[in-house]
Amino acid sequence: MPLKMLRSITRRSKTKSSPKASATINSLDDISSSPPKKSRRILRTDVAFVKRIDMPPMSPTSTDASPALFEPFRPEFRADPYEAYRRLRIADPIHYSPLIRKTLITRHADAVELFRHPNATDVPLRTGATPLLEMMSEWLTHRTHVRGLIARAFTPRAIRELRPRIEQLTFELIDALPRSGAFDLVTALCYPLPLTVIAELLGIPHADRPSFRELARAFARGISMAYSGTPFPPGDEAALLLRDYFDRLLRGEGDDTPVVAALRTPDEAGVVCTAEELTANLALLLFAGHETTAHQIGTSLLALLRHPEEAERLVADPSLIECAVEEILRFEPAVQLVPRVLRGDVELSGRTLPAGTDLAIIVGATCRDPARFERPDVLDIGRRDNPHHAFGGGTHTCLGNHLARLELQTVVLALVEHRPRLRLATEGVEFIQGFAIRGLETLSVRFD
Question: Average pLDDT, whole number, for the chain?
Answer without folding.
Answer: 80
